[in-house]
Amino acid sequence: MNARHLVSCFLAVGGLALLILTQGGCARSDAARFYLLTPIAPAAPTTSPSGQVGLQVERLPDYLRRPELATRRGPHEVTYDEFHRWASPLDESLPLVLARNLARIKGVPLVPLYPWSAAAKPERVIHVRILRFDADATGKVILTACVGIDGNWREEAIDVQAPSNQPNDIVPAQSEALAELARRIAAL
Fold first, then answer.
1. 33-78: pLDDT as tens digits
2. N or C: the chain end with fewer CB closer than 10 Å?
3. pLDDT tens digits, residue range 113-129?
């Protein structure tokens, strides 16, 4: 066998091996799953709502402004799962779900979200600053928020244990944590 033939065989076998490896990697790819926060079930509307309230949720922390679900691995480490994502941006869906929860708890058709028009400005504004909204490695969801009404601020800390640390259990627990925050706000 001459050197030229040996090099040709080596290149052909190497090229075939490379093709098989690259095609094998493409053949099996995990599909991303998408998740939504869900509001609580509607309650019967009240006959006389006690003054209109509006909700202003401040910008979420940067670590939550990503499409992937965030998991705390320790006090200083957050990981993101590229195959488990929010179906809509969390900084848009979280205020909507919180407002729907608050409306349903108060028995009113709508709690307007900031920004609102001057003509539709509510009598009272509830300010919410989300500080933390994630799960730890055990599946415990932790929601920490500062809530301000009429210039009085308080911190709310809510823990909800999911049945597992899997996203399909964590996201419903996050929805429950938001519902609990709405209940606490409604009680103020």
1. 999 999 999 876 665 556 789 999 999 999 999 999 999 999 999 9
2. N
3. 999 988 888 999 999 99
R_g of the chain computed on alpha carbons: 25
Partners of 159 in beta bridges: 142
Whole-prediction pTM value? 0.82
Structure-token match 């919410």, residue found: 128
Give the single-character DSSP code of 41. P
Q: How far is CA 146 from the centre of its chain?
A: 18
Count of alpha carbons within 13 Å of 91, Cβ hemisphere only? 12
Structure tokens at 187: 């009680």
Where do the DSSP E strands lie in the chain?
A: 33-35, 53-57, 68-74, 77-86, 124-136, 140-149, 152-161
Q: Where are the domains of the chain?
A: 1-30, 33-187
Q: What is each CA distance from 181 to 88, 133, 136, 185, 187, in whole angstroms?
A: 21, 12, 19, 6, 10
Total length of the chain: 188
CATH number of 33-187: 3.40.50.10610
Task: Pick left, alpha or beta for residue 135 (phi over 0 → left; psi -120 to 50 → alpha; otherwise beta).
Answer: beta
